[in-house]
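Q: For a teaching session next week I want to show students how multiple molecules come together into a single three-dimensional assembly. I've collected the sequence lines for a complex. Could you give me the predicted structure tokens for the whole thing so I can convert them for display?
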Amino acid sequence: MTILPDGGLFLAELDEQLLQPGTKGLPIAQPLRQHMVGVQRWNVLAADTSFPVAVLKTSSLLHNLGWMRAFCARYDVVLAPHGKTTMSPQLFGAQLANGAWGITLATAPQVLAAARCGVRRVLLANELVALADIRALLALLRDDPGFELFVLADSAEGVRRLSGAAAGAGIGRPLPVLVELGIAGKRAGCRTLDDALALARTIAAAAGLQLAGIEGYEGLLVSDDRAADVERVEAFLAQVSALARQLDAEGLFGGPQILLSAGGSSYFDLVARAFGAVAGLSRPVLPVLRSGCYLTSDHGHYLELTAELAAREGAEAHAADGLRPALEVWSIVLSRPEPGLAILSMGKRDASYDLRLPLALAVHRPGAVHPAALPDGARIDKMNDQHAYLRLPDGVDVQVGDLVGCGISHPCTTFDKWPVLLLVDDDYNVQRAINTLF
Amino acid sequence: MTILPDGGLFLAELDEQLLQPGTKGLPIAQPLRQHMVGVQRWNVLAADTSFPVAVLKTSSLLHNLGWMRAFCARYDVVLAPHGKTTMSPQLFGAQLANGAWGITLATAPQVLAAARCGVRRVLLANELVALADIRALLALLRDDPGFELFVLADSAEGVRRLSGAAAGAGIGRPLPVLVELGIAGKRAGCRTLDDALALARTIAAAAGLQLAGIEGYEGLLVSDDRAADVERVEAFLAQVSALARQLDAEGLFGGPQILLSAGGSSYFDLVARAFGAVAGLSRPVLPVLRSGCYLTSDHGHYLELTAELAAREGAEAHAADGLRPALEVWSIVLSRPEPGLAILSMGKRDASYDLRLPLALAVHRPGAVHPAALPDGARIDKMNDQHAYLRLPDGVDVQVGDLVGCGISHPCTTFDKWPVLLLVDDDYNVQRAINTLF
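A: Of course. Below is the structure for the complete assembly, covering every listed component.
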């Protein structure tokens, strides 16, 4: 049963592998070939799985894939979704099949993992500095002449390392490098246009390298003051655009097109508008968005931010039909030790806790027709490594053995806790297993 | 090269597996058989690895193994170290070879993973409620008559589920169940001695089950007021002891001995003293400690707490030679974008951030003789998914490409971020790879 398109990736090896007893979420005492998961007729609400279990709603994934495809088409921008969010080959495949230009990644091991599954074009949206990592990626480029990799630099030392290794690596093509423009007080990246210009000259002159574009990350500007955010993001994007004109005027860009890349999961509409407006350069501009969290959205931080994005988009867009949360973690009530307290079989090892704690959505007693929504007063206020503390208002019927469905905030820090996640239909029938490669 | 004893576990399969490019920490562009890691002559300080990389100092592991073995011998208690900390078969093996009575685990999948590697006795220090999990563990017990499993219960519903499944499972022996005594306002466990007594009667009378002992977790009482902690822990342990006498007087225990288990990684000395003093029951008492963090210790929370423990132990113990931090995460400086700020290639995906952020210990420029200790003012004050922000006082020489070694606080939430960790000698020569099974 193929639910998600595979984008042509090499996923058969994963589907053929034996899932071992002890794989979180799977109720197996014997090894099970992964492609057999879909025919087990497991249903999460029937308590057929182990708990906790991480599930992805297929209908929401498909909706979000289509949403983003339409968004990119509307603005004539391309998407290299940040793969570090999920690190799931099957989800990479679905993204590529839905028109993604490539996959963005954050580290050399992530690039190697993606390449192994067949991803053909990667934007490494990070400085590449460690010599062993540089060597491993150059070996990949040497052995696979069709593999495309773009990397970042924000320092002369970074450029020196890349050039020194690339020049003698025999990869048969220059290594495309984007200069990173940063933001004062934030993360990496040149802090001034002058610094960025100087570094761009260094890259353009370096043996083995090619200045392929400019990268920035406006997502570092997200704060609680959203109106101020929008102003700051637009100012930053204007700087990127200005730098592009300046570098182009100096003839520093070396590739067939000029990549301008930004776009976390909160303000990518602003990026699409700003970079879509950069025109009149000596060669085509390719605006590359990088949102990673659009695919699954969440029930917290990103759901709010993309709702605001939809509002900015207005009626022409999908205000009434925005990105949908796809990722849930279901656990079981292990204990009801006191009135008002349920202890769940889910902890820091299972669900994000960095931005917010998981949001308890629903309780389900197997055998009941539907899960029951939990009231606002029912909330998780603490997690240990393997347990969550669900506080319950008076009158909420939650017993030992009931199932509790939770939304999460920040998909990146939930995906990395699950080697295998289960795709489910809207009735929580398990359709297939997907992998993560963290 | 065997550095750690293997405890007789089935580790050859792991050592024979092909480590794939993309495995965090490994500088490989081609698959590498795991047992070949030790002959690559990688040295972390020579920047031979990928960064970040998680390393365990073999000398510290061996020291801590011996320390705990001596501790248990001194108090005549046994250790079932909490395996959820590391979930590493190789470390389980070393613990078993150093006299561990069994391995404690927190979830059914963890039990299945440990059993697969050859662990023969598990204390599941948690309620076992999900029917699929119960079935999977009963299948394990049925298929392996020599496998020993102890589980917890704190509710009649939990007992009903265990009994209903165990009675008809054909496992040929009763399932040993410990009643969990809890603490008001804390996690699972019966809240009063009366409740625990009633539940113990239920367990003792349930088909397929055997009342094997009492479990509690004094670690939930750790607070910033350590003097008060000690009082509260001792009071709680006295309750466990009183309950043991009461249940024994009623003849409820069913096994050959009475398990009394407690002991996180902070106050296990108090547990050893308290349970070692329970005498005069109808059958032998077996005090089972469960510390998981002693093996690697850390540079934060647990290092402090075990130093206090050593102080309580006085001169007769190892005050001058306590548990040593074994776990470090090394990353590389990706960017020096501003004075006073270095961006490291290590983030929430790589190091604990739940109790404290990583502690920057040392900086090393490959080629230098030794790493240089970082001053107290050099500290990580923020992490993103894949980056850390290292703040630097004036005059500290840190450049792009330098390596930064960090200690962590709370090993459990670092181990689960690393499928493979590297054992190193005191000069950071890589000796072998070990696995985690999260």
